[in-house]
Write a structure and sequence with these properties.
heterodimer, A: 111 residues, mainly beta, 6-stranded mixed β-sheet, globular, B: mainly beta, 7-stranded mixed β-sheet, 4-stranded antiparallel β-sheet, 11 strands
């Protein structure tokens, strides 16, 4: 059973606007959450993370929000750029060893 | 700074043949993971090693799959015999194995079983 879910397989956004990618999880023991970005024919690359003791973490254009009561996290990209077009994976862990990944959301930023 | 290195990048073989995928983790990393990417399940963990010891192989789909890590700088994932449904992209990742450390992925092996 999928413990981390990304219910939107794809998202299209105009350049300069905000992109919001969503992720839900079921395991309340998860305490560290990550977002990865994946271009075609490449491996996923780490983008940003958040610990369960925080509800927001920001890195430049990228902000991750965590709502523990709703078991929901989101990635905001603002402003969106064409180079942000990629597949974004959400991941979570409770041990720091085993990571659980979502199925990914394909983001297209339209110039 | 070398990242995780996987080989081959592409593998095409006939059903029933043995397939061996290789991975060199980042030097100093002590945890290594093998994933399979599918449309339905996204990145699916097959097995992971900590200090060269397999910790959890519950994700290995069948006995046809096996993985080894003979030393800290090398791991293999073998499929024998291979079947068309094994066709997927297989990723290797490594991490320091400490709390709150992200995984670093290789570029994957695209496997096609005819």
């Amino acid at each position: 059973d999928q413990q981390v879910k990304q219910n939107s397989p794809s998202l299209s956004v105009q350049e300069g606007r905000i992109s919001i990618l969503n992720c839900d999880y079921t395991n309340s023991m998860f305490d560290y959450f990550l977002w990865y970005k994946k271009y075609p024919a490449e491996g996923p690359t780490f983008l940003i993370s958040i610990s369960s003791i925080k509800d927001k973490n920001e890195d430049g254009r990228f902000t991750v929000f965590l709502n523990k009561s709703a078991k929901h996290l989101s990635l905001h990209i603002v402003p969106s750029q064409p180079g942000d077009s990629a597949v974004y994976f959400c991941a979570a862990t409770d041990t720091g060893n085993q990571f659980y990944f979502g199925t990914g959301t394909s983001l297209t930023v339209i110039p | 700074d070398a990242g995780v290195i996987q080989s081959p990048r592409h593998e095409v073989t006939e059903m029933g043949q043995e397939v061996t995928l290789r991975c060199k983790p980042i030097s100093g990393h002590n945890s290594l993971f093998w994933y399979r990417q599918t449309m339905m399940r996204g990145l699916e963990l097959l097995i992971y090693f900590n200090n060269n010891v397999p910790i959890d192989d519950s994700g290995m789909p069948e006995d046809r799959f096996s993985a080894k890590m003979p030393n800290a700088s090398f791991s293999t994932l073998k499929i024998q015999p291979s079947e068309p449904r094994d066709s997927a992209v297989y990723f290797c990742a490594s991490t320091l194995g400490q709390l709150n450390q992200p995984q670093h992925f290789g570029d994957g092996t695209r496997l096609s079983i005819l």
